[in-house]
């Protein structure tokens, strides 16, 4: 095992981590203060520690409703994106056919257009399809929006799997779909997990689409829930920070669970 | 194979366009009024207290008095209205009652054909609403009813004024400049302004225009959406001279108006600045930005001072209001509900709980602070009340005005440039 | 790689005859339809169709209410392109894109390399570095807005560290507001780059690095000549996504500065919302969106042709058909 690295590297890393962490601490600790405290002394630590914000949010039924809605939508959107995206990326990475690059470019178009602009037509379209006020009306378009990033990331990873493995699978009698399902997907675990995390976080934070699709507050997702602490002329900053801190936890948890797969994914099979 | 896949996509597109256009066309709704039990969906911006509980009480009371009516109140975050209302007015089921601020924006909404004309339904009681109702008229037809009014003036810290040796609030521009100088000498930031949000900057230009231009000029110019009188340029020059005294906090172009202690409201609330030109909502905003429980006793109000050389009445006020509009499906039931909102019980609650300025003088007696009562009095006695121009003008023109004034505050542009920006936007330039 | 195992298995079995003799094209078409079809339908239905309709709106003068009846052809496009504010906005986007390549990329690579080693508490470190990405842009903007106020958190930290001379009007000075925003963007999106690069680093076998070390290469040389080239495809994806993201920048700027002061931090997307949708000029806003799209599209085409070409040609693998 090599030496762990130069001191300068560590100092730099600590500096960067400090800059990263401090604003996050601001969010978490801000929830333990009152808005007036935050305003009087933005850089201060909680004093006295106020439990009311976190308690009130955790104790309110609406927070858990929002959490559940967000989770349901995010899971559906992520599953759809990863499933359909990996299949499409496989086709675009390991098959040759006419117009393949054209299709790939078509998918990248979704990244190139400011999707907020397409919201009005999308809303009318969803209304036509009767998908308003329903989780599918949010999850399905979110999955569609995440497809470009998913395919852009997955395609090079899938292409990098050596052809010899595929040949060997064919010799063993596997069909190409079988190869996809049994060999390629497990080998692509780091990339798949990466796109899953990205899709989940994107869905978790999506604001505009749930705003338009849902009028009934029972269906709201977490980003919409923040509005309850913001009025026309002011906002309850402490509540907003507490709410935000709590909202981050599921998405971060998903990342922590997934990141083992990102790193641990391929290293095992290389030793084989 | 490529061509095989292109066709379905093109067909979907071709099919979708008529759908989109069909969804866009308005005015096909019949005006049949449902009889019997009615459910009204009500979009309002009361997401937090005190207004949130007031509206909940209103719904309960109204439903008790009118058993055939059910009201489903839907609080929406204030900024979301500009996104959701246009879309809702595209659909076949817009909310029956929704919050509107009158002026040019309402005129745009009315072109959808889905906003109800309340002229007939309200003709018996509209006069009790007062002159403010005119701001919710489009081409002489009543498209909404206000329930709360607003006036803009200077909120100031009595303690900081005393510290700087200012004995009385200024009533002329000279006195205001003098007060600014004294505050600077005492090491106090004279005036806070929320330059980031642009509309607080516009208040200044609006008021200088109100002082420079006669009421008739104002009315005609707003109606024609054209600024031709030289008084408009004078307004800009007066503003320029005022800006030259550098009365604002450092970095004011980046200061938000209402969010956080660093906002202009927060600066005044925490005693870091002595004055702010804002609407009557200012005390409510300030109270959430400071720990100081005694804030109300330290804060006072005075109207925008008189400015020499203008044709405007020195007592004219800049203001606006909050209102609701109805959509065509249940217009009559909606109008009856809006009438209730203007009635004494509701207005008293609004005044007493500090949710805003009521429409009637009797309800104003319930206002809790002297400052708010003073605002109300000045508003009632004002010979002329002008709605803030960014709301009075069509939205695009109003936004162009605010942008031009904000740029002016940041040191870009000229007094003539502000007038040009408005006229160009009115002519359709972007 | 499982080469040992497959070699044993292959040796134990007689060579199989060539399999695909009947209708290879039809089978392949079927597989492609199954693999590509669902994603294509979903994408076409919920992304391409709305985009097409939005592009259609751009040909009209429309306030979002009532019917589309004021056809202006390319008038909106001419108005947008000739405006100085929009031209400035394009410039701002390009500055952010350039800075992201020069600043964010080395930072991401360095951090990813560091976080790839067996450090103690590595998982916690990774979660911390990724956490800003999990925050929504809206909340990020709100937090940094609070922290960047004059005499706010950032100013106090700097003064406390004796760096009081560096304090600026972070969001009010037109000359530096764009760079302040870039710093916030970097803070937020470092995590995205790292997660991507970590995944890419998994494809760099440790044997190669060990071999290089045995040959006497220093850590820096190993990184430069072994790791980075193998990380190439991942880096090239990151560059692509980062530039596109810079061109589309909206939420953070909108909440922190509204594109101000005096349009000094305007981006193409804030311009289209500010001068388009907020002013009920839906046709104009859609036209600006299409212009933004075309700029991104041109970049994407050029990038695919020149930068991604080597990845497309499959330097490491054979293409199967």
Please tell me the overall pLDDT of chain A.
85
Q: Identify the CATH homologous superfamily of chain A.
A: MetI-like
CATH class of the largest domain in chain B: Alpha Beta
Strand content of chain A: under 5%
Terminal CA distance of chain A reads 19 Å
Number of domains of chain A: 1
CATH topology-level fold name of the largest domain in chain B? D-Maltodextrin-Binding Protein, domain 2
The total strand number of chain A stands at: 0
How large is the radius of gyration of chain A? Answer: 23 Å
Write down the secondary-structure element order of chain A. Answer: HHHHHHHHHHHHH
Number of strands of chain B: 11
**Most extensive chain-chain interface:** A-C, 114 and 114 residues
Poorly predicted sequence stretches spanning 5 or more consecutive residues of chain A: 265-272
Helix percentage range of chain A: over 70%
Rounded to the nearest angstrom, the distance between the terminal CA atoms of chain B is 44 Å
The averaged pLDDT of chain B comes out at 90
Compute the number of helices of chain B: 20
Structure characterization notes:
The complex is a heterotrimer of chains A (272), B (430) and C (321). By secondary structure, chain A is mainly α. Chain A has helices at residues 7-30, 35-40, 52-59, 61-94, 100-112, 119-129, 135-159, 163-171, 176-187, 189-205, 208-213, 222-225, 237-271. Chain A has one domain (60-271): MetI-like (MetI-like fold). The radius of gyration of chain A is 23 Å and the shape is globular. The two termini of chain A are 19 Å apart. Chain B has two domains: 38-150 and 319-387, Periplasmic binding protein-like II (D-Maltodextrin-Binding Protein, domain 2); 152-316 and 391-426, Periplasmic binding protein-like II (D-Maltodextrin-Binding Protein, domain 2). In chain B, helix 8 crosses helix 19 and helix 10 (230-244) packs across helix 20 (415-426). The model of chain B is unreliable at 1-31 (pLDDT under 50). The model of chain C is unreliable at 1-10 and 314-321 (pLDDT under 50). Chain C has a domain at 92-176 and 186-252: Orthogonal Bundle (MetI-like fold). Chain C has 14 helices and no strands. The chains are: A mainly alpha (272), B alpha/beta (430), C mainly alpha (321).
């Amino acid at each position: 095992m090599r030496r762990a690295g130069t001191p300068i590297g560590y100092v730099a890393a600590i500096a960067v981590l400090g800059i990263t962490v401090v604003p996050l601490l601001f969010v978490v600790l801000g929830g333990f203060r009152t808005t007036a405290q935050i305003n009087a002394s933005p850089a201060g630590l909680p004093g006295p520690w106020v439990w009311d914000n976190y308690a009130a949010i955790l104790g309110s039924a609406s927070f858990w409703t929002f959490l559940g809605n967000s989770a349901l939508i995010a899971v559906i959107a992520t599953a759809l994106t990863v499933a359909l995206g990996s299949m499409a990326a496989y086709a675009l990475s390991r098959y040759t056919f006419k117009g393949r690059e054209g299709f790939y470019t078509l998918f990248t178009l979704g990244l190139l257009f400011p999707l907020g602009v397409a919201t009005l037509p999308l809303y009318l379209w969803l209304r036509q399809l009767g998908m308003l006020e329903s989780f599918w009306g949010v999850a399905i378009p979110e999955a569609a929006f995440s497809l470009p990033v998913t395919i852009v990331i997955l395609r090079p990873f899938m292409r990098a799997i050596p052809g010899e493995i595929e040949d060997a699978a064919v010799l063993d009698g596997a069909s190409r779909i079988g190869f996809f399902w049994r060999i390629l997907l497990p080998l692509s675990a780091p990339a798949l997990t990466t796109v899953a995390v990205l899709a989940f976080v994107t869905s978790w934070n999506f604001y505009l689409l749930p705003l338009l699709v849902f009028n009934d507050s029972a269906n709201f997702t977490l980003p919409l829930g923040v509005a309850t602490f913001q009025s026309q002329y002011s906002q309850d900053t402490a509540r907003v920070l507490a709410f935000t801190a709590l909202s981050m936890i599921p998405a971060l948890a998903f990342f922590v669970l997934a990141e083992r797969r990102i790193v641990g994914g391929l290293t095992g099979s290389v030793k084989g | 194979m490529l061509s095989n896949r292109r066709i379905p996509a093109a067909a979907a597109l071709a099919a979708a366009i008529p759908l989109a256009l069909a969804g866009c066309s308005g005015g096909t709704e019949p005006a049949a009024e449902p009889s019997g039990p009615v459910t009204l969906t009500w979009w309002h911006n009361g997401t937090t207290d005190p207004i949130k509980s007031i509206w909940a009480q209103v719904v309960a009371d109204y439903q008790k008095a009118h058993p055939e009516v059910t009201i489903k109140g839907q609080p929406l975050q204030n900024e979301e209205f500009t996104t959701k209302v246009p879309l809702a007015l595209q659909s076949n089921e817009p909310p029956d009652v929704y919050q509107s601020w009158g002026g040019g924006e309402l005129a745009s909404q009315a072109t959808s054909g889905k906003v109800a004309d309340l002229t007939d339904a309200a003709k018996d009681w509209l006069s009790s609403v007062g002159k403010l109702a005119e701001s919710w008229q489009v081409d002489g037809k009543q498209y909404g009813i206000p329930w709360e009014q607003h006036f803009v003036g200077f909120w100031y810290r009595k303690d900081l004024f005393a510290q700087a040796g200012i004995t009385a609030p200024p009533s002329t521009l000279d006195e205001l400049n003098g007060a600014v100088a004294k505050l600077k000498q005492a090491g106090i930031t004279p005036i806070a302004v929320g330059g980031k949000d642009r509309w607080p900057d516009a208040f200044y230009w609006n008021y200088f225009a109100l002082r420079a231009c006669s009421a008739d000029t104002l009315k005609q110019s707003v109606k024609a959406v054209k600024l031709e009188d030289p008084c408009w340029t004078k307004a800009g020059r007066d503003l320029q001279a005022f800006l030259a005294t550098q009365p604002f906090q450092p970095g004011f172009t980046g200061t938000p108006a209402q969010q956080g202690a660093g906002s202009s409201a927060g600066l005044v609330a925490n005693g870091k600045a002595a004055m702010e030109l804002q609407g009557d909502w200012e005390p409510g905003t300030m109270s959430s930005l400071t720990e100081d429980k005694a804030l109300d006793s330290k804060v006072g109000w005075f109207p925008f001072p008189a400015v020499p050389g203008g044709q405007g009445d020195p007592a004219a006020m800049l203001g606006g209001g909050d209102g609701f509009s109805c959509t065509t499906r249940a217009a009559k039931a909606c109008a009856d509900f809006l009438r209730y909102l203007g009635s004494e019980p509701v207005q008293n609650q609004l005044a007493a709980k500090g949710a805003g300025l009521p429409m009637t003088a009797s309800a104003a007696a319930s206002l809790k602070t002297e400052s708010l009562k003073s605002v109300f009095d000045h508003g009632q006695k004002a010979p002329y009340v002008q709605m803030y121009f960014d709301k009075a003008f069509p939205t695009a023109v109003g936004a162009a005005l605010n942008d031009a004034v904000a740029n002016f505050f940041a040191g870009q542009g000229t007094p003539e440039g502000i007038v040009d920006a408005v006229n160009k936007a009115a002519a359709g330039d972007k | 790689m499982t080469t040992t195992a497959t070699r044993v298995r292959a040796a134990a079995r007689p060579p199989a005859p060539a399999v695909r003799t009947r209708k290879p094209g039809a089978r392949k078409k079927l597989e492609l339809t199954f693999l590509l079809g669902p994603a294509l339908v979903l994408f076409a239905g919920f992304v391409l169709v709305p985009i097409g309709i939005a592009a259609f709106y751009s040909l009209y003068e429309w306030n979002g209410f009532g019917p589309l009846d004021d056809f202006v052809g390319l008038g909106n496009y001419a108005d947008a392109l000739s405006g100085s504010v929009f031209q400035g906005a394009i410039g701002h986007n390009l500055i952010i894109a350039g800075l992201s390549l020069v600043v964010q990329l080395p930072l991401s690579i360095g951090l990813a390399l560091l976080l790839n080693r067996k450090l103690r508490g590595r998982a916690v470190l990774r979660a911390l570095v990724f956490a800003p990405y999990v925050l929504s842009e809206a909340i990020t903007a709100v937090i940094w807005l609070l922290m960047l106020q004059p005499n706010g958190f950032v100013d106090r930290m700097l003064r406390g560290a004796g760096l009081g001379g560096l304090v600026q009007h972070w969001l009010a000075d037109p000359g530096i507001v764009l760079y302040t925003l870039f710093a916030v963007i970097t803070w937020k999106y470092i995590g995205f780059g790292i997660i991507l690069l970590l995944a890419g680093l998994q494809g760099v076998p440790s044997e190669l690095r060990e071999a290089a070390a045995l040959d006497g290469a220093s850590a820096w040389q190993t990184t430069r000549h072994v790791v980075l080239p193998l990380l190439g495809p991942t880096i090239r994806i990151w560059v692509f996504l980062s530039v596109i993201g810079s061109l589309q920048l909206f939420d953070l700027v909108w909440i922190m500065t509204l594109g101000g002061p005096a349009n000094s931090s305007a981006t193409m997307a804030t311009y289209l919302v500010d001068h388009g949708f907020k002013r009920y000029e839906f046709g104009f806003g859609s036209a600006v969106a299409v212009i933004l799209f075309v700029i991104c599209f041109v970049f994407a085409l050029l990038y695919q042709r020149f930068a991604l070409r080597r990845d497309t040609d499959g330097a490491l693998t054979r293409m199967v058909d």
